[in-house]
Amino acid sequence: MLTDKRILLIIGGGIAAFKSLDLIRRLRERGAWVTPVLTRAGEEFVTPLSVSSLAGEKVYRDLFDLTDEAEMGHIQLSRSADLIVVAPATADLMAKMANGMANDLASTLLLATDTPVLIAPAMNVRMWEHPATRRNVSRLRGDGISVVGPNEGDMACGEFGPGRMSEPLEIVAAIETALAEGPLTGRRVLVTSGPTHEPIDPVRYIANRSSGAQGTAIARALAVMGADVVFVTGPADAERPEGVHVVEVQTAAEMLQAVQAVLPVDAAVFAAAVADWRVASASDSKIKKDKGQIPSMEFAENPDILATVSQMTEGRPRLVVGFAAETDDVIANATAKRLRKGCDWIVANDVSPETGIMGGSENAVTLITEDGAESWPRMGKDEVAHQLAVRIAAALG
Ligand SMILES: Cc1cc2nc3c(=O)[nH]c(=O)nc-3n(C[C@H](O)[C@H](O)[C@H](O)COP(=O)(O)O)c2cc1C
To answer: Residue limits of the DNA/pantothenate metabolism flavoprotein C-terminal domain (predicted)?
Structure first.
């Protein structure tokens, strides 16, 4: 699957750099060409000789190496690959990337490139959880950079938690997804997912039980089939999918804004459980608890994202798919919803508590199209996602 793919592998200065030697081996076994770049700190952890021996190519190390510039300029080097992989991606490299800095060879290549980029972060758990790193990761995802890992586990520094670099084979799988060519290659697809949080005051909010699992699985399945996926998600528990552009939002209003910024797309799948109402005048400061005083709240209707996009007169996606989470008369309600909203398909599911679907790993859906209702057997959410992606590919032709 990776035969003759060209990977520019940037190795940053972290303990996990030793795993990148194995990553090179795994990529070469699969027929990929690996051009390695070592940061100055990376050289402290693995030697240029071992990296170049395994890669079978010279190691690029210095922005101002005139010999390298004569052979292949840094701009050309940044664009010569099918994919740039940063492994390990240190906190420092991620901060540089998020801020557009270019003060060494690795960061300059990353700023000068128009090639897709995948990063495999690796760092101490406190560094990973630091607000600055959280901000940087979220900005990088928003810039369309794919992120694989990190995993949770024992760390070289003796601590435990998220921060361990993904294993080489996990990175290979993420590379295969990023380079996937399939029936949706060249198609741009929007997926919304998760709940929205509607503030009551700065510390309280109204939410729902959506875990984001089904939307995440759909985004992943579409990406595996080669689609360029933009994933707009509310604050969901599910891990963000690899190989897609992630946009994080909190409220329904923010989700609508994010969706409009993503258009035009070929297809849009609205799997998010968007809150129907918000508190009309959310308080800017925490509402105090006064004994015997129970605050009353007025609600306002949230924007209807599915209807807004379905009823666009210009630039409407060719295929708009909505979701209907129902507890009664699932098919009748979902069929009516399809017509009311003006979308092409509705994926309906019964979210009554006894089904265990909301927050669970399985789903039993009915696909409602203009041809009628088609009930699928109960299956894993990943399988539902795959089947839906196959149908979307067929519909887009
Ligand atoms: C022993 C040791 C281990 C380190 N491990 C990591 C690490 O796993 N992740 C990380 O982000 N930084 C780590 N650092 C800090 C980086 O090496 C340092 O931030 C460096 O400037 C990164 O440079 P680079 O991003 O250009 O590779 C480590 C430093 C030392 C001395």
So the answer is: 184-394
